[in-house]
């Protein structure tokens, strides 16, 4: 087997994905009010190729935008397992990093990387739309090199 | 307005604690609760605003406060009732005020108070919770969070355990 | 129809990952296309807010109080500040009262824009979603100039007044933004025939049922009952301002949408009356310094109510001697709109009407769970 040929194929697959990322609309908690303007008409995300889709089978990316409670992390994990690879997870806000403002609450999770494999962190409470675009463009640059 | 307060005082032994511009604070006994509520509902107090529970550990009581508003008289009545902490139970007012059923369901889950006569007392917010009622003062919630989510081996989190 | 193997009706979950619902799910029992019974399933956003506030002191609580409901943080900031001022028994200067009411009315307008945008998108009118969120950004630029943050103002309205003074040329900017809001409202008044046919006659709520189940705010005013906390128990300076209360009689989803549009126009009128009358003076009570040590008086309790954009919000506070509180209890209007009222309205309707009825009740799941 020629190893170079296999690597080329995997790279080509990821490059095709990264040209236009389709986002599953799991809009939850505080990040809800900063993702909706990003979908809206002023900070248009469709010019970069991102659109929201209703079904996990068609999606490439899952955005976790804020705190997750014990009840909703189980549903998020089920959705992640139903997506087809290659897939990425983006964590928005300071709550998935280390607990955020609710670091001593008895019902929220404190570190997202214990439950799902994370590819990109965007800190802020909540981060501005310019910061979200900066993070996504870094992800695109890293995987095309 | 004065007739209602005087009837409550003479018939059910209700005390007036404080009178402000549009609010009156009363103190009543547990066994007269249903009759008080039927009397004030007939006289125009038909908007059930909220239901509060306070846990007082030193005197061994749980205090329940009913807030009821009337639009024609523009007044709120706040009725305070104390119940025993070892066996907390009281009769439900959901036959008189329909909006109170969901408030009693929440207090049953968070404080453990039993409301006799409520049609549905299943759990509301917490899923798979097997411990004691979380809002009581005898439950040490900060210790529970430390044991479940943080660990002493992690260098950054060692400061939480001092 | 019944499941032939089990002799039961089919059960489904209209859940949190549906594109027509928020962070909220409903368990429904179906017979073909008709709903027989429904049960609401809250708890996806429960953080135990009342316990978190017992561990922090008054200034940390003022910053935490904007995160109770994420769609209108300034209104909950104002309610917490009023409860603290009534507890400690202090007065605030006149300039601070005018600034607070202007910011609260702007927050009501931008919360209605979120509601209308999501309502249009769930019923198929996608251009309305883009327009509503496009015009809302003008208001967020104003918030960022005055308080420092687009979404969360970091406790700008604190117990004692406000944290900083207004910038110098803010009044001309506010007038320009009010002109743009009138443009957006006049666009939505031209009725889209698809939206009207989907919402007329759907989800009818009558007057006796609304009072019995505890509805308040725009949902109650759409059934014909005239009630508003700003008129019956006026707080801040609402007794000096002249405004109308829009009231309609049918009680269906279309009349709730109409009341949303009329309320935006009334809020614009209130802001215009106040803009040229702001007095000069202090903006915070001289005894309260943000961040300094503070001790509460012993054994006092208060109960306050406010009219936030969705209905009636209340707070009960009890204090003990020392820097921390003994008990604080918060109630939001969505606690009653999304559990008893929604279960009552969904009996006997069809599956395609469920997102329309849910979005027309204007519920915020964060308000319900806390």
What structural keywords apply?
heterotrimer; A: 145 residues; alpha/beta; Rossmann fold; five-stranded parallel beta sheet; 5 helices; 5 strands; C: 370 residues; alpha+beta; Cytochrome-c3 Hydrogenase, chain B; three-stranded antiparallel beta sheet; 8 strands; 45% helix
Structure description:
The complex is a heterotrimer of chains A (145), B (162) and C (370). Chain A has helices at 3-19, 32-39, 70-82, 95-98, 129-144, and strands at 22-24, 51-53, 61-65, 88-92, 120-122. With 145 residues, chain A is an alpha/beta fold. Chain A has a single domain (20-129), classed as Rossmann fold (3-Layer(aba) Sandwich), CATH 3.40.50.12280. Chain A has a 5-stranded parallel sheet with strand order 2-1-3-4-5. The longest helix of chain A is centred in the first third of the chain and has 17 residues, at 3-19. Chain B has one domain: Beta Polymerase, domain 2, CATH 3.30.460.80. Chain B has 4 helices and 7 strands, in the order αββαββββαβα. A 5-stranded mixed sheet of chain B has the order 1-2-5-4-3, with helices on one face. Chain B has a two-stranded parallel sheet with strand order 6-7. The model of chain B has no long low-confidence stretch (mean pLDDT 88). In chain C, the strands form 3 sheets. Chain C has a 3-stranded antiparallel sheet with strand order 1-2-3. In chain C, strands 6-7-8 form a 3-stranded antiparallel sheet. In chain C, helix 4 (94-122) runs antiparallel to helix 11 (253-275), helix 4 packs antiparallel against helix 13 (354-360) and helix 5 (126-146) runs antiparallel to helix 6. Chains in contact: A-B, A-C, B-C. Chains A and C meet through helix 2 and helix 3 of A and helix 1 and helix 5 of C.
């Amino acid at each position: 087997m020629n190893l170079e040929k296999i690597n080329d194929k995997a790279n080509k697959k990821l490059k095709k994905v990264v040209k236009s990322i389709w986002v599953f609309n799991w809009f939850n908690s505080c990040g809800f009010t900063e993702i909706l303007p990003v979908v809206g008409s002023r900070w248009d995300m469709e010019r970069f190729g991102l659109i929201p889709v209703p079904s996990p089978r068609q999606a490439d990316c899952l955005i976790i935008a804020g705190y997750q409670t014990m009840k909703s992390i189980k549903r998020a994990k089920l959705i992640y397992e139903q997506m087809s690879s290659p897939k990425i997870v983006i964590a928005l806000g300071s709550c998935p990093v280390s607990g955020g403002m609710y670091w001593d609450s008895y019902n929220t999770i404190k570190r997202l990387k214990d439950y799902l494999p994370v590819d990109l962190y965007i800190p802020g409470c909540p981060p501005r739309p310019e910061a979200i675009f900066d993070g996504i463009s870094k992800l695109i640059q890293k995987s095309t090199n | 307005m004065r007739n209602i307060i005087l009837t409550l005082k003479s018939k059910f032994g209700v005390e007036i604690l404080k009178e402000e511009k549009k609010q009156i604070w009363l103190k009543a006994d547990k066994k007269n609760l249903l009759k008080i509520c039927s009397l004030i509902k007939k006289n125009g107090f038909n908007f059930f605003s909220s239901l509060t529970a306070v846990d007082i550990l030193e005197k061994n009581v749980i205090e329940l406060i009913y807030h009821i508003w009337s639009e024609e008289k523009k007044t709120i009545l706040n009725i305070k009732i104390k119940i025993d902490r070892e066996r907390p139970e009281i009769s439900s007012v959901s036959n008189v005020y329909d909006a109170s059923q969901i408030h009693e369901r929440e207090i049953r889950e968070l404080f453990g108070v039993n409301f006799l006569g409520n049609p549905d007392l299943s759990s509301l917010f917490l899923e798979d919770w097997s411990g004691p009622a979380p809002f009581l003062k005898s439950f040490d919630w900060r210790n529970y969070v430390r044991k479940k989510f943080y660990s002493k081996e992690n260098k950054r989190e060692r400061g939480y355990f001092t | 129809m019944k499941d032939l193997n089990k002799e039961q009706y089919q059960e489904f979950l209209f859940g949190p990952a549906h594109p027509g619902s928020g962070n909220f799910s409903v368990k429904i029992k179906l017979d073909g296309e008709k709903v027989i019974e429904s049960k609401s399933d809250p708890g996806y956003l429960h953080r135990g807010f009342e316990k978190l506030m017992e561990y922090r002191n008054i200034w940390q609580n003022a910053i935490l109080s904007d995160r109770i409901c994420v769609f209108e943080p300034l209104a909950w900031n104002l309610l917490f500040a009023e409860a603290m001022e009534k507890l400690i028994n202090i007065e605030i200067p006149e300039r601070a009262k005018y600034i607070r009411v202007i910011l609260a009315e702007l927050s009501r307008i931008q919360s209605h824009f979120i509601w209308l945008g999501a309502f249009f998108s769930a019923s198929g009118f996608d251009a309305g979603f883009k327009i509503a969120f496009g015009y809302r950004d003008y208001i967020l630029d104003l918030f960022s100039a005055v308080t420092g943050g687009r979404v969360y103002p970091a406790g700008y309205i604190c117990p004692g007044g406000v944290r900083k003074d207004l910038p110098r040329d803010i009044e001309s900017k506010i007038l320009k933004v009010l002109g743009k809001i009138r443009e957006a409202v006049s666009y939505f008044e031209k009725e889209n025939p698809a939206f009207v046919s989907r919402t007329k006659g759907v989800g009818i709520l009558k007057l006796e049922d609304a009072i019995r189940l505890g509805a308040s705010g725009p949902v109650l005013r759409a059934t014909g009952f005239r009630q508003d906390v700003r008129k019956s128990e006026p707080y801040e300076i609402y007794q000096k301002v002249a405004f109308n209360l829009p009231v309609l009689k049918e009680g269906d989803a279309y009349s709730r949408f109409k009341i949303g549009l009329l309320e935006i126009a009334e809020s614009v009128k209130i802001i215009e009356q106040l803009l040229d009358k702001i007095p000069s003076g202090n903006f915070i009570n001289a005894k309260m310094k943000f961040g300094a040590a503070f001790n509460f008086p012993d054994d006092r309790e208060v109960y306050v109510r406010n009219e936030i954009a969705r209905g009636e919000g209340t707070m009960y506070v009890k204090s003990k001697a020392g820097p921390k509180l003994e008990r604080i209890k918060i109630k939001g209007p969505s606690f009653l709109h999304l559990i008893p009222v929604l279960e009552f309205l969904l009996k006997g309707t069809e599956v395609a009407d469920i997102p329309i009825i849910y979005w027309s009740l204007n519920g915020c799941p964060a308000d319900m769970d806390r």
